[in-house]
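User: Please predict structures.

Assistant: First:
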Amino acid sequence: MSSKARHKRSWLKPGLLALLLLITGGARDRLDQWITTTELPPIIREVSTEVRDRDGELLRVYTVENGRWRLAVNPDMVDQTYVEMLIAYEDKRFYSHPGVDPMAFVRAFGQAIWHGELVSGGSTLTMQVARLLENSGTGRLSGKLRQMRVALALERTLSKDQILQLYLEHAPFGGNLEGIRAASYAWFGKEPKRLTPAEAGLLVALPQAPEARRPDTSPESAATARNRVLARALKAGVVSQGDAHSALKEVLPNKRRAFPSVAPHMADRALQENPAAKRQDLTLHKSLQISLENLAKRTVRTLPDGVSVAIVVADHTTGEILSSIGSADYSANDARQGFIDMTQAFRSPGSTLKPLIYGMAFDRGLAHPQTLITDKPVSFGTYAPQNFDGAFRGDLIVSEALRQSLNIPVVLLLDALGPAHLLDALRKSHVPTKLPGNTPGLAVGLGGIGITPEGLTQLYAMIAGQGQAQRLHWRRGHANDKAQPVLSRSSAWQVGDILAGLAPPRGFQSRRLAYKTGTSYGHRDAWAVGFDGRHVATVWIGRPDGTPVPGAFGGELAAPVLFEIFQRIKPSQDALPPPPPETLLLSTAQLPKPLRRFAGRTAVFETAKDAPKLIFPPDGAKLLLENTDLTVKMRDGIGPFTWLANGMPVKTGERRRETQISGLDQGFSKLSVIDSKGRSASVTVWIE
């Protein structure tokens, strides 16, 4: 070769190389611009709202648009074997390619030529995410190019874990199931954190043909696809030979499972209060909630049509609501109206407010548990309360009057306290109320007011908490308000001690449970509410529409349910606390004299039984005197006596209870007598 030719060749090589680099660089720049200018679909899509219990257990989940189940997920929430299977089967170079895998396309193209048909696709997981986000097809060339472009752009915007998360949230799994968590719940009834190799294999295979491989409608296709995934996983070393062999024998699910729907009323309440939060964390205890929901269903089976039940359980030491059942069956559309949350319904509390009235009376020095009180016919204007059985017990101690739930003694105490003070105590206890009229009357003490089952639980939590009112709450992370005193701790203890002395319902052993039952007017509401050293619970039974339930009594219907609730909370009971040091533990005879017998707020103004009484002439009498002397008569009182006419003493030092008064003029005269203790009696007469 000549030197000229060699020189030309030496010049040509660098030129061709430069031209090739120029062309490659231009193509690269155009490709980069093509990717950079890609208009990405919305990456953030709505996920289902989840309601969880105190331990993070799923209580209820809500669908998104078009009734789809799409639960939020990240790779850490998914079984690692599943993730490894998915990558081995769908996209083994997922962590190394830029969104498009050229080697996968070459493989797919070669297999298609060799077999004369499409055997495997070249789509990466990122391309599948692009298709899912845009809801585009897979077969047309234009669609495939668009997926490649979006995939390349996504890889520049998101991390590999973020792309994997999008796949885990949006992959289709049959029907209205989207995402691995929705699929795991629907097909296996659990979170995907711990999947067996067989379960993981099925969930890897389903998104490729979600309807054709559904295990409930196409079990053979589902098994074939699952086994193919297991074979690929075995070859890739994801599972062992033994695990793969065992997985091939595992039976496929033959039906979809229902998503959790525990505490539906409380879940709805949480969602209504904060609809933007996709995770609602409650203080409820899932296992207890399920147990008590089953108890509620069992309770109404033997009750008349239309009767429902509500239950509230709380930890009165923390203020956390642990269980809330608004009805026996949330989905019931019959007369039971299960969709109504009866824990929030205002109902007449019957006799369940009586313990608060007694506690207030103890605090104000009106009574003591050993104080005598008289159960006898009384009237307050036109209001004449009666005991439930219509009988009267005469004199009995206050603690027994509360245990027997007598109406007249508690109305006497409420009259001394004032109904407005009772409403103020309920307000301080954070108990919402509904008053029939504008002015509270004495009837509020016997149930003439509206209170919710949750509100009644709040009230008894205050009594159980040594008289300190702490607002109950049901949302995790709630900051407790400062407790507000309503009763002294000694009065609260005395009330609890009295209620703990009640005999348990038939069939239950005594648990030293402080409890009270109540029945509203017309047998519309049957109640039982009680507490031990830690927990407080309320049971309401009745018809949501407020119609009577003939023969329904709180002691017969609600009390047995209350005692079973405490058995289900835990086998052993938290003991009630001992009496505070300042508690006055005395018998009736040992009490200070004013506390031995309840006298009422007007006792100081009332005439004592042995006070003097003028018996002649009668008050208002018209007298025609033939002379100036008027005979007057009296009884009772302690001599000597002083007689007065029109305020002027006319006789002093009298021992007899009959005398004559002289010198009275015509017209009105006021005659009075005063005994040695300063007690007096007077009448006014007309002299003609």
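Second:
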Amino acid sequence: MSRLQLKHIAILLFSILPLVSSAQEEEINFETNLSKTKLGINERLKVEFKVNKNGDNFTAPNFNGFEVIMGPSLSQSSVWINGKRTYSLAYSYILKPISKGEKTIGQATIEIDGNTYKSVTKKVTITDAVDNPNAPKTADDIADENLHLVAEVSKGSPYLNEAVTVVYKLYVSPDIRVNNFRALDNPKYNNFWSQDIPVKRYDAQNATYQGKQYRSVILKRVVLYPQKSGNLTIEPLGIELFVDVPTNRRDFFGGRIYRPANKTVSAGSRTLRVKPLPETGKPADFSGAVGDFDFNVTTSKTNLNASESLQATVEVSGKGNLKLFQLPEPDLPSALEVYEPEFEEKVRTTVSGMDGKVTNNYTIVPSYRGKYPIPSISFSYFNPKTEQYETLNSNEITINVMEGPEDTSISLNPAGNPTKIIIPTGKQFHFIKTNTNFASIKMEPFYGSNKFYTLFFGPLLLIPIVILARRRKEKNELNVEGTKLKKVNRLARKYLSTAKKALGDEVKFYVALEKGLHNYLKAKLKIETSEFSKEKITEILRERAADEETVEGFIGLLKNCEMARYSPFSEVQMNSDFEQASQVISRLDKQL
């Protein structure tokens, strides 16, 4: 090899060495590892502080709540794999718990290249003594430490009727495999108006919980509006998980062996401190609206003729409890005929609460010519962001009726005073005639006349008509069951028509049946019962004097609708439920 070639090789090596040394520089990682995060007071805990680069002046934390049985034990390793060096330095301690409860392993420090690094803190739960403290962890033990169901509440102290979002998250350690789950008991949101926000996909995301890395999945979301002030409790959500947990054994190829386990986890109950709405500054027309709203009153036209109609719209839009308050009513002149309003709502519920608008549409028909003012209407609401009441006022609208009869019931002059009666002068009584032209009247005898025979025989002719009418009435009374059946069929067709069309398709039938039952109560009681729990519906029906048998029948149908989502139902059962729904609606229609 020539000198020139050696020179070129030396230059190449010197140019590569800095790149190799820089590539070998690694990010410093100083971590705390625990043998377990939950142990009995008679067990031992191994704590390891591990760093991937050599350092000096290691300082252990104060192990408050523990007694140090052994340590520190120093171990280090340096391994070359495919030309890459992996280094680790570890300080280990064996600790004995002194008392029960949640303990914290503090931060350890170490100096590396003149810089000080700190480990993260770790939480440990100390429980009652266990039977065999030296026994290896069971699958349930591993699942307990690596599965957590948490209810995350958006606000812990909301105002009355202010939206609160509850998100139920499942935190799963990366070492655990979740195969399936099922809900055991859904929370009962007593004293809340509630709306579920469906979770369409269970997407896992990386998250941190209690200082450890997990995968989190949202299982359930619900929006609550508290209906009373004070401390209100949200009952826990419980689920059963079917998981695979790792063991210390390996298969032939070196892979970790997993064991199946069933585990029940609960989110625990949560308590909200609901604040009442302030009395200071509350407007007289306040009807319970809480949020941030706009208010508007409009008419389809302002110029028309008598007997024509127009539409007046009272609308509230924005974000807040749109389904839980009454719209203000316009004060219209008596000369305008007003029909019952048609209520319309376009409201969607998201994780932040209700959003949309609610509207009352009034049909107005003027009877007389003239100008009729629709006075300004006020709408008041409480804004939880500003913590103040706000009042919005509509503009005054004038209805101009151009053609039609005049209203002569009250005649006023332009000054607004009653019109004076004018008395004519001169011959005031010239219209009274003083000459008469009477003619004699010929009297005919009553007996034997046509009127005599009509009055005499007329009642006799009415007797067969009365007999026929009475027999028809008795026949109708005997057909009471037929009349009831017709009424039942009419109500069933109105509220259960969709369910009847879906007979045979279990999912569609019970969805339509549940919707029909709620629509009937909505129409009958003027409330949105689909957002209430079965307990709340039971309470409402009892308050409206429905008998116990009817109430139990209605609630039983709702339970069947819920059970149909998880268990198969036969077509015979569907037909039976449809008939029972018709009968329950008929009985409720009489009792309510």
